[in-house]
Amino acid sequence: MLLGPIQTSPDPWTAAQMRDLRSVAPEPRQTPRGRHAQLLQIAAARRLRCAERAGVGRSEDAGYWKAVAPTAVFKAAELRAGEDFAALPC
Q1: Contact yes or no for 54/62 (Cβ under 8 A)
Q2: 14 contact partners, CB below 8 Å, separation of at least 6
Q3: Which of 3, 30, 76, 88 has the greatest number of CB atoms lying within 10 Å of its CB?
Q4: 15-60 pLDDT, tens per residue?
Q5: What are the tens digits of pLDDT across the range 38-50?
Q6: At what angle do helices 32-55 and 59-81 cross, to 10 degrees?
Q7: Rounded CA gap, 66 and 58, in Å?
Q8: Where are the domains of the chain?
Q9: H/E element, 61
Q10: Whole-model pTM above 0.70?
């Protein structure tokens, strides 16, 4: 009796299988501290975008990104002022 080669490593998942898995996976729960950090990261990225656009001479784009950067900072400050934002232990 002749047997074929034995597959030693499993096949990688297909894109359809990954999509199916993502559809049933629970969404990660974000903490207020994590959201605060994300908002500050967004503000920093907007400021960098402003500098990049200004460096290539796109003043209209640079002006837009400079104008919208503070909104993320204000949202982060509002979140931090909220009562569910726990203070760091000393």
Answers
A1: yes
A2: none
A3: 76
A4: 888 888 777 777 778 888 888 999 999 999 999 999 999 999 999 9
A5: 999 999 999 999 9
A6: 160
A7: 12
A8: 47-81
A9: helix 59-81
A10: no
